[in-house]
Amino acid sequence: MSAAISAQTYAPPAGTTTDGVFTGSAGPVAQSVDWLAIAPPTAVAVAGLAVLVADLFLPERGKRLLGPLSGAALLLAAVPLLFLRTRTTATFCLPDGLQECSYSADTLALVLQFLVLAAAFVTVLISMPAVRDLKLPAGEYWFLLLSATAGAALVPASRDLVTLVIALEVASLPSFALVGLRLGNRGSAEAALKFFLSSVTATAVTLLGASFLYAVTGTLHFQGISDGLTGTDPQLNSLGSAGLALTLVGFAFKASVVPFHFWVPDTYVGAPVPVAAFLSVVGKTAGLAGLVLLVVQAFASRGEIWGPALAVLAAVTMTVGNAAALRQRPDRAHGAVRLLAWSSVGQAGYLLVPLAAAAPEAGTHPEQALSSAGATVAYLLMYAAVNLGAFAVVAHIGRAGRANRLQDYRGLYASHPLAALALGFFLLCLAGLPPGVIGLFAKVAVFSTAVQNGLGWLAVIMAVNVVIALYYYLQWTALAFRRGEPATPAAAEGARGGGAQQRPRIAAPLSAGIALTALAGVVLSLDPDLVLTFAAGGLR
Fold first, then answer.
1. Which of 9, 58, 284, 361 has the greatest number of C-beta atoms within 10 Å?
2. What are phi and psi of 116, to 5 degrees?
3. pLDDT of 500 above 80
């Protein structure tokens, strides 16, 4: 938390009341903390510390319980969201009557916190077999996973730059270690180093931008920054614009936006598959949550600057991601993970479209801007469910054959029909084809925001990219249902003696992860309004 939100004493005028603060006429009164509001990220952080301490005392066999305990902790951390959904609560507020708070449990924060906790829970399920198979240190793995989740859950509730940047770093630093946790694996070490160096550079640029903004506006709270950028000295306009652009860099990096995407394919391939799944959903959610908060709240008054920039970045990101995914060869090692990595970059482009469309209303109609940003949240909910499910299937195939080529999925339906059906469903959702109805509806919601806000050229580019993506999604789907055994010797050897019929049974936690994500995709496809309400203004 920032210094502005620490438990401090002050002497406000007698009789005044500030949300999150007890005041009176007797003198200085200590600032209060709404523990229910901050319960979700706090509970996850405490659980992470508890797991790390428990690891010191448990015998080797007992450490297998740390995974289920971590999953249970994430479920418990989500319980306060049920009580918070009926009210908007802000805490860690300044005692100056301006209602500037550093933490807000509003609808946007609660929805994204639920998404982070649910995605982390599924990651726990698909991680249990990987921790055992790869002989990862259990205590360290679960501690790092919970720590990164706590940071990601804090990001959407942050309402000042210091809290936001610290939350993003809390989500990022454990992720570096998770990527490189396979000791003795050169690819894992290289991926972690690339991820670390590029992330540190992005963070340094973001902090430089934040310092520029503070110099121009004199505040770090979002509302104060928005007001300060409007009424600033004309001589400081250039400095404010530079600060705005530089601050967005770190969050664009986490969201894997081109040209800050170069770490994605190598990092996903070098990391254990569950960690790649975690980065593709939870890490992306943290980055996009930061972008939403910054453009809709902190930089609302300067939409003429960030709006066109985000539109161009959206077009470039979806085009580069889909073009690179299209080039993945079926016989390339780790081709499945690499294709999902580039697909994740392409999906980031779609997620940016509603944010770019929010620019015209950001300064004058903030509620309409938030409505446009709601389409990003709606698309993110769909993407999180089906992308985690696809990674869960990939994690199972990775247990059978370490190469994890796309060709290794040939004949999957013959050995594991339910897994093949689930994979096909997930890929069709990402492509936006029936029966993945929620994928189609989410894309239509994003497309509509672009058209309604005068970004017809961006809508055309999006439509072209959706058609391009159909090819590689359908090609992978067809491969899973094609007759025959795995086409590569490595896949056959990894399948324990030979064919698709010899693949090992799906581990129970992996089955649960696939089932949960498939169920979420089916429910959302049957009732798209559960998600699309956010695209229609449910975040107001």
1. 284
2. -65, -45
3. no
Question: Would you say 287 and 202 are in contact if contact means Cβ atoms under 8 Å apart?
Answer: no
Q: Quickly state the pLDDT bin for 99 (edges 50, 70, 90).
A: low
The answer to whether the CB of 220 falls within 8 A of the CB of 160 is yes
What is the spatial distance between Cα 361 and Cα 369, in angstroms, rounded to a whole number? 5
pLDDT for 15: 34
Q: For 90-104, 137-151, 201-215, 339-353, which range has the lowest pLDDT when averaged over its residues?
A: 90-104
Burial (CB count within 10 angstroms: exposed 0-12, middle 13-18, buried 19+), residue 121: buried
E-strand ranges in 204-247 read: none
- Spatial distance between the Cα atoms of 207 and 287, rounded to a whole number of angstroms: 15
**H-only helix segments in 358-485:** 359-362, 366-400, 412-415, 417-431, 437-452, 456-481
The Cα–Cα gap between 398 and 39 comes to 36
* pLDDT interval class at 540 (50, 70, 90): low
Closest to 320 measured CA to CA, from 370, 264, 386, 360: 264
| Helix and strand element counts for the chain (H, E) | 22, 4
Residue 17 has pLDDT above 50, yes or no: no
Q: Residues 151, 156, 157, 161: is their CA dihedral positive or negative?
A: positive
Statement: the pTM of the whole predicted model exceeds 0.90: no
DSSP, collapsed to helix, strand or coil, labels residue 62 as helix
Q: Give residue limits of the domains in the chain.
A: 299-540
d(Cα 431, Cα 439) in Å, to the nearest integer?
A: 7
Among 74, 66, 82, smallest CA distance to 118 is for 74
pLDDT of residue 301: 81
Q: What is the secondary structure of 22-45 as a DSSP string? A: ---SSS-EEBP--TTTTHHHHHHH
CB atoms within 10 A of CB 16: 13
Q: How many residues are recorded in the chain?
A: 540
